[in-house]
Specification:
Length: 408
């Protein structure tokens, strides 16, 4: 057993693709099933953020599942998933070997599928879109944050396990999947063709607005490449003499906590609090900005929406609370739990909510989100392809703020 990644939201992200499993197979017999059940139980017992374990006797849960340890691999995985599911925490999940392998691939920034970040809504247990990945089939089809996936190829998703939903959505590149979607009160069908998806293609360019050169950086996800790519973008834009920055975090469903923190360090003065994590024992650990200071002190505006989640919210909260940036757009998603992902002995994995995080001002944004400084809605039918164009009212509001500062 070893911790794999400290992640802010990757454990909920299901990038839908076909991939094989290289994990060892659990041999038939109770001893192997019991070993996995105990391994998972012990990690949760030691590290889970809620010391009441969803108001249940966690020792009795262990006893119950060990007493009925199944003989087959499939049944064992199902039993472990049920045990973890008793916590009623959509972010704490057992990852079967192929799902764990998928997560490892996703962290590296390479995958194939429809490009959806999904979760089960805690209140309704509905399969909910966090955000589509930029450039993916789901993005091109204009699926949006908070869309509810009602059915996959005609199979209703209400109450469906997240891993089962992911399994139904997986398939080879070029294959098709049909989704029934609800957006507010409207229901419609979307046919998607699976394809390879590139994660975190950080995009940057100089945009001249009212005679003022501005740096625009689009950051769609936080993986292992995010910090280096954003740093490179800032350095390049500084050489071109921009007078302010727009950092676009819309539809950024999060990713690695460390990447969100490190990107914040590129913008913040030395010694500023970025985020505080609070464990179930009440231990509060604050992470601070680099003593070297920021790469630039020029004005900054962040674009956010309800697809801005997790690591993106850590970054947004840090820059807002430290008055380093103004936020423009709509309220963010509201995910304030941090997960640790563990490798298990048989090749499967376990994502566990180990702490809550707070913004520098002590705000707990879980299920609440972050309100922008300037609220600007997008039209309901706004196409994702029009982001950061003259048709984008949120982008235009951000550039107005920056040009006014530059001319003042």
């Amino acid at each position: 057993m070893r911790p794999h990644h400290l992640a802010a939201s990757l454990v909920l992200i299901t990038f839908l693709s076909a991939c094989g499993s290289t994990a060892q197979t659990i041999a038939s017999g109770n001893p192997n099933a019991s070993k996995l059940i105990q391994e998972v139980w012990q990690i949760i017992n030691r590290d889970y953020v809620d010391g009441t374990f969803n108001s249940q006797d966690w020792w009795q849960v262990r006893k119950t599942y060990l007493a009925q340890a199944p003989n087959s691999t499939t049944a064992t995985y199902q039993a472990v998933a049920e045990m973890v599911g008793s916590l009623k925490d959509p972010y704490t999940r057992f990852l079967r070997p192929k799902d764990y392998q998928q997560l490892q691939t996703q962290v590296s920034g390479e995958l194939s599928g429809v490009g959806l970040q999904i979760a089960l809504a805690p209140e309704t247990n509905e399969l909910t879109v966090i955000a589509p990945i930029e450039g993916s089939p789901a993005y091109r089809a204009d699926l949006k944050p908070r869309d509810i996936i009602l059915a996959i190829d005609g199979n209703p998703t209400k109450g469906m396990d997240l891993d089962v939903a992911a399994e139904k959505l997986r398939g080879a590149a070029g294959s098709k999947v049909t989704l029934m979607v609800r957006r507010e009160t409207r229901e419609f069908t979307v046919a998607l063709v699976r394809a390879k998806v590139e994660i975190n293609p950080v995009r940057s360019e100089v945009k001249t607005v009212a005679g003022v050169p501005l740096g625009y950086i689009r950051l769609p996800a936080f993986n292992g490449n995010a910090t280096a790519e954003v740093k490179r973008a800032i350095q390049g834009l500084e050489r071109k003499g921009v007078q302010g920055y727009v950092l676009d975090l819309r539809l950024n469903g999060g990713g690695l906590l460390g990447a969100g923190v490190d990107v914040a360090k590129l913008w913040l003065p030395a010694g500023k609090t970025i985020v505080a994590t609070v464990t179930r024992k009440g231990v509060r650990d604050a992470t601070r900005s680099s003593p070297l200071g920021p790469l630039t002190t020029k004005p900054l505006v962040l674009l956010v929406d309800n697809g801005t989640a997790s690591a993106s919210e850590i970054l947004a909260g840090a820059l807002q609370d430290n008055k380093r940036a103004q936020l423009v757009g709509t309220r963010t998603f509201g995910k304030g739990l941090i997960q640790q992902v563990y490798s298990l002995a048989d090749g499967s994995g376990l994502a566990v909510s180990i702490a809550k995080y707070q913004t520098p001002a002590g705000r707990d944004i879980h299920k609440v989100g972050i309100e922008p400084d300037v609220k600007v809605e997008l039209p309901a039918d706004f196409p994702a392809a029009a982001l950061a164009t003259a048709e984008d009212p949120q982008y235009l509001a951000a550039t107005r703020i920056l040009t006014q500062v530059a001319k003042s």
